[in-house]
């Protein structure tokens, strides 16, 4: 009896997963030998094995499999990043994080939009839509980089926290501008900030509640009856936090990030697990996060549309250069410079100017605009892919070198 189409599809997906794991393993070893963040090598390998070159992997960006990997993978990586954040550090830098993840997104978006308007010659609304898509940083890229390169604690945690918090603002601004572009509404700063506040607070509340329940069930002396199932509890809670927040129209990524913070700071709540149990959970999270990085960035590289990119390569690269060298520095110095509580040094500010990789979340927003046939969607998608390649290949690979030059590396 012939195999059904669903079985053949399942076999094909299983084969692709096996190829990604094999390529990811060797890519990870290569990255370690070359002493560069593994996401860089994963992205390059993905470009080589995608339909544009060897054609070993061909999973469409709008497929259910790809969306599942993106949503869960990004959520888990963000949870892992949250678990490495220390509350005592956040108390010192919370003003910077709040301002740069909200007002900073608007500043970056406007500067990038102005550059796109003059360089690409697109309508103002399309230029602003491009600026909004690129304005948020990408936690799926930044968290792994800072997990592999030991940077001064408060700088690394500020950048990681910003990347977790600003995705909500980036999405809100993008869809607000899209409403204007599609003739469905007018931009309102007040409405955008109110929506951001709602998404943020709900996400923080959901992540905090589920995080506390999780650590109670795995670490409490009396109620911790799920201690031996701690890895499974983390998986359930990551999915539960994201889906609960998303179902209530708040930021799922913020919820999983806050859940990670709760788990990583369980001693603050008077809960502590045995060292052996902590080590088992830590190794599990590290391995799972590595697998998620492999899948996300190899697939992201495989989905790069070279033909589309080539149409706007030079002009797009010029826009991205202004975005990297003007938009980000202006944003950092305006938003973080005045924070007297944090007392940022010039070297710390310069480092934060350089670390703002673009990746999964802007790529997903650009993909959504393509699917909705938004005005200028092809140009936006093209420049977004150029931004992803330029920021990951240039900024991620030079993070350690720059940190060393600025005296921010921790031995």
Give me the secondary-structure topology.
Blueprint: H1 5-34, H2 38-49, H3 64-83, H4 87-120, H5 124-134, H6 139-148, H7 153-181, H8 189-219, H9 230-247, H10 252-264, H11 275-302, H12 306-311, H13 313-335, H14 346-354, H15 360-371, H16 377-405
Helix pairs in contact: 1-2, 1-11, 2-11, 3-6, 3-9, 3-10, 3-11, 4-5, 4-7, 4-13, 5-7, 5-16, 6-7, 7-8, 8-9, 8-10, 9-10, 13-14, 13-16, 15-16
Tell me about this structure.
It is a single chain. The chain has 411 residues and is mainly alpha-helical. α3 packs across α6, α4 packs across α7 and α15 runs antiparallel to α16. It has 16 helices and no strands. The protein has one domain: Na+/H+ antiporter like fold.
Question: Keywords for this structure?
Answer:
single chain; 411 residues; mainly alpha; Na+/H+ antiporter like fold; 77% helix; globular
| CATH level-3 fold name | Na+/H+ antiporter like fold
Write down the overall geometry: globular
Q: What is the total domain count?
A: 1
Give the CA-CA distance, first to last residue: 62 Å
DSSP E strands, number: 0
What is the CATH architecture descriptor?
Up-down Bundle
Helix content percent band: over 70%
Structural class call reads mainly alpha
Low-confidence stretches: none
Percent strand equals under 5%
Order of helices and strands: HHHHHHHHHHHHHHHH
Task: Give the CATH level 1 class.
Answer: Mainly Alpha
The oligomeric state is single chain
